[in-house]
Amino acid sequence: MADRDDGGLAKNAKNYHPDVPQAGGGFFLKGGEGCDWGTKNRLARMFSSKSGNTVMLAFDHGYIMGPTTGLERLDLAIPPLIPFVDVLMGTRGALRSCIPATAEKPLCLRVNYDSSVLYDDMSNGGGIACDIGNAIRMNASCMAVQTFIGAAGEKNSLELLARTVDAGTDYGIPVLGVVAVGKQMERTEQFFLLATRLVAENGAHLVKTYYCEGFERVTAACPVPIVIAGGKKLPESEALTLAYRAISEGARGVDMGRNIFQAQNPIAMCRAIAKVVHEGFTDARAFEYYTELLQTENK
Ligand code: 5RP
Question: In 169-276, at which residue ranges do the beta strands (DSSP E only) sit?
């Protein structure tokens, strides 16, 4: 077993060079240069080549949580938001039944299943809910797989991730590795450094994780782009601050759900987040913009 680099003098010597861009570029997304043309083309549909960033809308919650607040009716909640985001992240069942096939946005298809929230600990690991043939049939631009680093399902979920990367590589479809934070998992810099790096080195082309203190080191040490999850609903100003900090500290986008579809005005929230992600707005300016949109709507 390899020695664990987990303490003593060496820990203090770590230097992530957060201000130095990753070498080996040519393609605008880090870690993408070595991929085939099809994978790059799909990534380029998801991320703006101008800002290098993306606003992904996550509405896959029902696959473990059932009808989450705000998503009681997917067919009513999601279609109005489609023009205001860059990528749709959902399950095959949700997409097929509630999202018009005319939607012109790339899909990040959730391809794994997990235990439902009825289980105390959901992190025992699930399986593949949608195989590569069906992901292609859904016209997926990306496949998302949940990983449970540091939990009972770790080995199983990394196996699912790696096999999905194998299948995706055969057909040029990139894979989003999602870092889960179960009840037993800490939301610390050390945890996210470890989890995001494991997921990237096991083949994910992009990684979804949560924001934490020291996030610029997490993004620097992860060799592929990171997008952040929003987590539980926050006041809109705080959600914009979360997005702003993440982008300022090296995230290449957001993959948000509840902080969009549970907002007072989800369309205005998508538009305000896009200002932060693509146009360099500060959180304060984006919140002002959000408030202006609300006022215009109420006139
Ligand atoms: C859970 C997921 C969900 O899609 C996503 O994180 C939920 O988004 P949010 O937390 O922003 O509501 O990947 O692991």
Answer: 175-179, 206-209, 226-229, 253-256
